[in-house]
TrEMBL record:
Domain spans labelled Glycosyl hydrolase family 92 N-terminal: 30-232
Residue ranges annotated for the Glycosyl hydrolase family domain, each copy included: 238-732
Signal sequence, renumbered to the chain: 1-21
SUPFAM superfamilies in alphabetical order: Six-hairpin glycosidases
Subunit: Monomer.
Cofactor(s) required, per the database record: Ca(2+)
Pfam families: Glyco_hydro_92, Glyco_hydro_92N
Gene Ontology MF terms: hydrolase activity
Origin: domain of life: Bacteria
Coiled coil: none
Lineage, uppermost ranks: Bacteria, Pseudomonadati, Bacteroidota, Sphingobacteriia, Sphingobacteriales
Protein name: GH92 family glycosyl hydrolase
Regions that span the bilayer: none
Amino acid sequence: MKRPTILTILLSVVFATKLFAQTAKDPVDYINPYIGNISHLLVPTYPTVHLPNSLLRIYPERENFTGNVLRGLPLIVTSHRGSSAFNLSPFQGVVKDIKHVLPLSYDNEVIKPYFYSVDLDEQNVAVQYAPSHQSGIYELHFNHPEKDTYLIFNTRNGELSHDNRHISGYQNLDKQTKVYIYLETDVQPIVIGTNQGDKVGTNDKSTKGEDAYFIVQYPKGTTKIKLRYGVSFISTEQAKRNLRREIRDFDLATISKRGRDIWNQTLNKIKVTGTDEDAKTVFYTSLYRTYERMICLSEDGKYFSAYDGKVHDDKGRPFYTDDWIWDTYRATHPLRILIEPEMEANMINSYIVMTQQMPRAWMPNFPEVTGDSRRMNSNHAVAMVADAYNKGLRNFNLEEAYRVAKAAITEKTLAPWSAKPAGVLDQFYKDHGYFPSLAPGEKETVPEVHSWERRQPIAVTLGTVYDEWCLSQIASKLGKTDEAKYFSERSLNYRKVFNPETKFFHPKDTFGVFIPHMDYRFPPGIGGRDAYDENTGYVYRFDVPHNIGDLVQLIGGKQAFIDALEDMFSTPLGKGRPDFYHIYADHSGNVGQFSMGNEPAMHIPYLYNYAGQPWRSQKRVRTLLQQWFRNDLMGIPGDEDGGGLTSFVVFSQLGFYPITAGLPMYVIGSPTFESATLDIGDGKIFSVVCENYSPDNKYIQSAKLNGVSWNKSWFSHEDLMKGGKLELVMGKHPNKTWATGDDAIPPSFKMNDKLKIKK
């Protein structure tokens, strides 16, 4: 056999190095914004183009991925489920065919977080786009030089003005909130005006009202137009300043590269390795989704607040809003505590500040650009505060956060989707410890109750006792011993709606009588809202995140708890899918009665750890990731809610999960990657490393934490923040003896007070 020469070996190494360099991917290259663009039931996950947590976001104007036409080109999204404000439509032809928004047939679309391109069929226009934080740039290539070239700028409800070159204006979002725009092109228009049928009217320098729009005509033969614009919630002048600060010329490639670099810098806070490329795509796409909201509204040190309708000085701290906290307190905010602690502290500070600007100082629970919409039930911003403080964040006013969070829970009504003061039902809750349901045949007469959202008595009770536990945590830190004791005791009131016969949480009327003939698969009301909310009784059976150890005892001990979990995953829907989803549309991503598509179920796969069988959690988490979170158009099983669902994916693929926001510890699951490294700041990293790695090896055989043998199915936040390494030896078959003892079970209620669990 001929031996290779040294030169041959060196050439092989050089070739391999070049090949690797050509194929190696940056984290941003793994992002697939199309994941989830076709919804299972409700709204799709939109392919959003934006920089992390930035004011400016866009996505194509269509119903979902299957939309046949674009409704113009977008300029800014003001709500992650709403349509764009303003609109841009390129056009070549005659004026009489122009409308305020043109339906655009399209092809060859490319979407990345920092770049968008598309070909418009009938118009024969090639489009490119890149975002900055508060400004964006389009480049349009027209392929019919013999035709007249136009751009149509639309405001759905507002006013536009021009000075023969620049266009500025606003769109009303509600009675007090406006979004402003300032835009210009590199080509001098020959006409800017309004539609006068078969010609462009040039007499008016402004246009106002519903679907008010300008037609901008360019010289015949124009084949390329570059357009840059700034947006603002303060004024058109500020929109102009934002543009001038961020995009100094018409170089789209530079803006796109800068956006790519920003995304890579952000995503590199977590680095993963392994052979499963689809898993990396799902991971980094999920991580990108958690940076869509909250958004930073600070513009040159000032911001508009819809909470009092005024422009404020941000006093050197970025102001954030747009957060659906009912979804995001569970894992999105806890993720930021680890990799974006300064941003998370600023977001908590923003909650406090916006509360101080409101007529009633009640902590928001759905803060949006247009104000607090008071959606869903409970007031879980208190969990965000308790979790951050208990995990070491200090750069916010805890005393003030406690005051406004307490007011939101004790002074505002607990009735869902209501901003009214506390009423008779709230007094009943205070006196009796549970939110009452209507009795059979009883008509609703309480004015705080939303006619469609109903009372949601179990959802409200379980959500509020958890919030009260969070209040007790904060009160204790503040030295308010009596209040800490009061709220801690109240947080056990979930026991009052636990039915000892059925072992489910069961609605009770004001007489203390459980509602008769309850089928937990089919609770009454649309979405089960006469008993629960968006989920059935099976999901709410396990919704006591602050005291899971006690829940294990209530259900009957370890084995009974395991049996209850298995029964949930094994019990079929019980109805045909059209009939079931007609009533329970949010209860998607089903495995039996479990709903992977709705946030209240996200912690459930990890609950086996509390009954001494962590191998079942390892199996369940991996199976759910494979079933419901995939690299395809339907790869998200429910409403994503700005990181609400995808934060579950990020944590679960890393191999641990913050099961109780407010308790500084993490429950171990089953890591997806050979290694994952988190940059936790101050030069420290925390790594999860899998020995005997294979995408199929989902079971933990043994573990070490910082070199020491680890036989617990959890670890503390303190352990993580020290930096170091969690080493897991993996296998294809379960080790049913690892982390099974009582001393291995995660803490409940308090870090130093694990309940003794029945055999």
